[in-house]
Amino acid sequence: MHTLSIGALRLKSRLIVGSGKYKDFKTTREAAIASGAGLITVAVRRVNITNPNEENLLDYLKDTDIKLLPNSAGCASADEAIATFRLVREATGIDLIKLEVIGDMAKTLYPDTIETLKACEILAKEGFSVMVYTTDDPIMARRLESAGAAAVMPLASAIGSAQGVQNRFNVIFVKEAVKVPVIVDAGVGCASDAAIAMELGADGVLTNTAIALAQNPILMAEAMKNAVIAGRLSYLAGRTARKLYASASSPTDGIAALS
Hints:
Elements lengths: L3 E3 L2 E3 L3 E4 L6 H11 L3 E5 L13 H5 L5 E5 L6 H15 L3 E4 L13 H13 L3 E6 L3 H9 L4 E4 L13 H10 L5 E3 L5 H9 L4 E4 L1 H4 L4 H21 L22
Parallel strand pairs: 3-4, 3-10, 4-5, 6-7, 7-8, 9-10
Antiparallel strand pairs: 1-2
Helix pairs in contact: 1-9, 3-4, 4-5, 5-6, 7-9
């Protein structure tokens, strides 16, 4: 019920957290542990995981069960992303990756889906297990799956915007379009946003800013953990149908009229 399989990896949690924007690695560690997440994504162009001579996030996570998910944040082309991941695999041996190729660095941080698709196909052929940040377009999701994606990660809204899921129908459409896991990524602002994504049928949620920039990141991490669990249970339980008019919770059929 709570486990999530991505490629050969089996995770106990359906929540994935990020490592950016925290005040220090100690807080990153504490929040990641509080979240219960099994994966923490790391922008390898910004956070050190390869140089043992500098402060390294790996040192703060080495006694936990949390695995690193390198991402290509900051890459603007397929070639940049491919080169980044080849270096990461050579340095760390990690082949489960989060592919991001950004088309608009200045304003929206929306992905360049054409370059993303190109990179996904090449990386998958090279044996990487590729989780792909993309738009909430079910057609592109299907193409990414065909290109070898191990999971598709449609944005809820713009990265770091905290606007929550802006197009709920598209999350459903993406889920219907592919068989690989669908992880809602980017734009989650609070625990209820994560619960909504899960209630729509997403297989998981990735969030960074909502936790890292919360007034109490540790408490928000715990809230996200519980929200993802609650949203998943709600989805599996099946919500009651929406109705235009009221429907009494206590049926009145058969009740004798008072004289």
